[in-house]
Design a protein that fits this description.
This protein is mainly beta. 6% of the residues lie in helices and 41% in strands. The protein has 2 domains: 193 residues, Immunoglobulin-like (Sandwich), CATH 2.60.40; 144 residues, no CATH class. Strands 10, 14, 15, 16, 17, 18, 19, 20, 21, 22, 23 and 24 form a 12-stranded antiparallel beta sheet that branches. Strands 1, 5, 6, 7, 11, 12 and 13 form a 7-stranded mixed beta sheet that branches. Strand 3 and strand 4 form a beta hairpin.
């Protein structure tokens, strides 16, 4: 189950989806213990059983403040340790660079994500879940805070695709049967709409060029249509380490890849700059270079808890080699020297760096 399968499903569906249904607000926060008696209200969702099968999955969805709650009831004659309930979430208006998230649960609770699920261990830690065994199967409660949701629009309507699935794996054999609200070729799943209150924890608001936002353990990041974040908001004042963790799922130590970047730089007007590396080392395998890989240098100006990217440039590529020096002079000119012998220079222009092309008229 790929994080982006929801969009693929919608393209394959024969009909346009109906208008989004608002996710109702719950009167209070349910206790996440797997017992559904205190989960009052919510929007009902049903997964029909397969032909010849007996398993049935029903669910209710509601919201309290900035948390999405899902109460699920599985009716199955024989629950096994290999049975899985999956919640797949995706915001279709978040753009082509935004994937979805798949959260998986078993009779013992949360299950470690697969590489294709789009969920980091830190994000899974933010989700609260509990399972309760019943006479007819099991019940499950899940609380997904806004920070654990996949990337969503910074200002537009929060239209959500939600797919619920149950994978019934019998101990008698290796085969398993899956029932789901999302089946290729069938009518599209209901679109849901979350209330704007899911953005309440993002203070201060991101700048206008930020189109989408995504929660991370330790803060928030914002995007402007590119792969890497444009804007960062930390829970605490940012430093080199916290910025690195927020910007990249796989933080890179510059010294480990022999890219020499100052830990901190300062512009003539006093703005503090921090640099982080993202991407992949094209020289990681051997002395040959893999052209499909590139490591990027992202420079952020930082003030307190807020950071904004002011430069995005190769730190390592087959064409330029490895960045051996990064320096900022007293006039605000940034120079990056590479192992190929090339030096690229940038000058500060109000709120970002511009590349300097010497000798051009």
């Amino acid at each position: 189950m790929l994080p982006f399968f929801l969009s693929v499903f919608l393209l394959a569906a024969p009909d346009e989806p109906p208008p989004a249904r608002p996710v109702p607000s719950l009167s209070r926060s349910p206790r996440v213990d797997g017992v559904l008696g205190d989960f009052r209200g919510g929007l009902p969702l049903t997964v029909k059983p397969l032909e010849g099968g007996s398993a049935l999955l029903t669910a209710r969805v509601g919201a309290f403040r900035d948390t999405l709650y899902v109460a699920l009831d599985v009716q199955d004659e024989a629950i096994t340790d290999r049975d899985r309930v999956s919640l797949a979430l995706h915001f279709p208006e978040a753009g082509v660079t935004a994937g979805g998230s798949v959260f998986r649960f078993g009779p013992g609770g949360k299950v470690d994500p697969r590489p294709e699920d789009g969920v980091s261990p830190g994000t899974l830690d933010l989700v609260d879940a509990a399972v309760h065994r019943t006479r007819k199967g099991m019940s499950l409660e899940v609380a997904v805070p806004a920070r654990a949701l996949p990337r969503f629009p910074a200002r537009d309507a929060l239209v959500l695709e939600l797919c619920l699935s149950y994978e019934d794996a019998d101990d008698a054999g290796p085969a398993s049967k899956e029932i789901s609200t999302c089946v290729t070729g069938a009518p599209p799943p209901d679109l849901l709409e979350l209330r704007p209150g899911f953005r309440r924890g993002i203070r201060p608001r991101p700048p206008v060029e930020v189109q989408t936002v995504e929660g991370r353990p330790g803060g928030w990041v914002g995007y402007n249509g590119q792969v890497d974040p444009k804007w960062v908001l930390g829970d605490r004042p940012l430093n080199e380490q916290s910025l690195r963790i927020l910007v990249s799922d796989t933080p890179i130590d510059p010294a480990a890849v022999r890219v020499y970047v100052p830990s901190r730089m300062q512009l003539p007007d006093g703005k503090a700059l921090l640099a982080v590396l993202t991407g992949q080392d094209p020289f990681a395998q051997d002395e040959s270079c893999a052209p499909e890989r590139e490591m990027r240098l992202a420079v952020f100006w930082v003030k307190g808890r807020v950071g904004e990217r002011v430069l995005d440039w190769p730190a390592m590529s087959c064409a330029l080699g490895r960045a051996l020096s990064v320096s900022l002079d007293e006039d605000g000119e940034l120079s990056v020297g590479y192992s190929s012998g090339a030096t690229v220079r940038f000058t500060w222009d109000r709120d970002h760096f511009e590349r300097v092309e010497y000798g051009l008229l």
